[in-house]
Amino acid sequence: MKWLSVLPQQCVLLITCLLMVLEAVPIDIDKTKVKGEGHVEGEKVENPDTGLYYDEYLRQVIDVLETDKHFREKLQTADIEEIKSGKLSRELDLVSHHVRTRLDELKRQEVARLRMLIKAKMDSVQDTGIDHQALLKQFEHLNHQNPDTFEPKDLDMLIKAATSDLENYDKTRHEEFKKYEMMKEHERREYLKTLDEEKRQREESKFEEMKKKHGDHPKVHHPGSKDQLKEVWEEADGLDPNEFDPKTFFKLHDVNNDGFLDEQELEALFTKELEKVYDPKNEEDDMVEMEEERLRMREHVMNEVDINKDRLVTLEEFLRATEKKEFLEPDSWETLDQQQLFTEDELKEFESHISQQEDELRKKAEDLQKQKEELQRQHDQLQAQKQELQQVVKQMEQKKLQQGNPPAGPAGELKFQPPGEHKVGDAPKHPAGGDQPLPPGHVQEPAARTDQVHP
Fold first, then answer.
1. Residue 280 burial class via C-beta count within 10 angstroms: exposed 0-12, middle 13-18, buried 19 and up
2. pLDDT per position as a tens digit, 287-300
3. Which of 15, 129, 296, 315 is 20 to 30 A removed from 209 (C-alpha atoms)?
4. Whether the Cβ atoms of residue 48 and residue 264 lie closer than 8 Å to each other
5. Strand spans (E) along 290-332
6. What number of other Cβ atoms are within 10 A of residue 395's Cβ?
7. Nearest-CA neighbor of 5 among 185, 215, 180?
8. Do residues 214 and 279 lie in contact, with contact meaning Cβ atoms separated by under 8 Å?
9. Per residue in 23-62, pLDDT tens?
10. DSSP string, 303-314
11. DSSP string computed for 231-282
12. pTM over 0.85
């Protein structure tokens, strides 16, 4: 079972960071001391996929709105609550005609895409008479009652849907990871059942050895603590740890220079800590678990630092966090290998669900097999009937031959003519010769015999 980890960006980040061009407070950084090449000013930073099924539509709308000067100015003065509440959406009535026309086109394309998805889904279950308008109600990121034009209500619905979906995204990822871990344990136990006692003990010993080897790693610093950030400052940035400055650190790791540390920029700070525990070359280290560890680290820092809970860290919030006692004297950080990821009861419930799914699949397989056998039986029956008919036809032709009747040709015509009969078109020739036919009613005289003696 392969569990895919996607790095999402939440809606506020998309709306604020992709639309706003905010200049952070300039500070002095000696770039010559920083390892590698820094972020090039003006360079476009690729944003990771949000994981939403309407991700492309969301980004296209943002890109178009970004071209309108009025809308950008309004956004720069709007706070997060105004964006999330839908107040900013009313400014859509004031954007240029060109922008509105482009937004209308994007919405029509999105509606057409959703209708195509609905049709494909319905076709897969052999459903007919599709009511696209009714089925479009399930998509909450656009106004389905008006499929042709992009209105303020569409922008409001898009922002609210993306905000809600992305707030639940991390929760969904945790649930998928838990299922992944339980499936691993389920498959391990099922495999052990197939072994004899000696091999089973050997496998159990190997499993415990791998767990011990994975847990034998250097100390992991508390995410967001001074020790953890200083390690990044020294090893990743190549700067003197004695000159650590939180304000400079913030500016250095605000990769897109938008004045915020977003979720992806925060997660990048934990790479050094994760490398202490996980190595893709080691059999005992699971990279899926590494991404779950990264997600938990980011959530922890956000809970500690993100005061207004907009899932973005401002310079002010960051500096305020560095003044707390927890920044200097944090608690120890427990990695996944030190935690119980699921209980035995949860595993039993999961296995019961798996068993139920297997039973349903087995029943479907049996039904399909029965259908296949029935179709094969009908096919064999038709083949037998065909052979019987061919045999009957053959016998009838043989009977006709025995009775003196010529067999019929492919089209039912006679293959030879009985004596005294002529084929159509074979009229008697004129006695004087030539090709002229005899007149009607004329009886042709028999030809003179060559052996008759004249007196």
1. exposed
2. 999 999 999 999 99
3. 296
4. yes
5. 313-314
6. 10
7. 180
8. no
9. 333 333 343 344 444 444 444 445 555 667 778 888 888 8
10. HHH-TT-SS-EE
11. HIIIIIS---GGG--HHHHHHHH-TT-SSEE-HHHHHHTTHHHHHHH--TT-
12. no
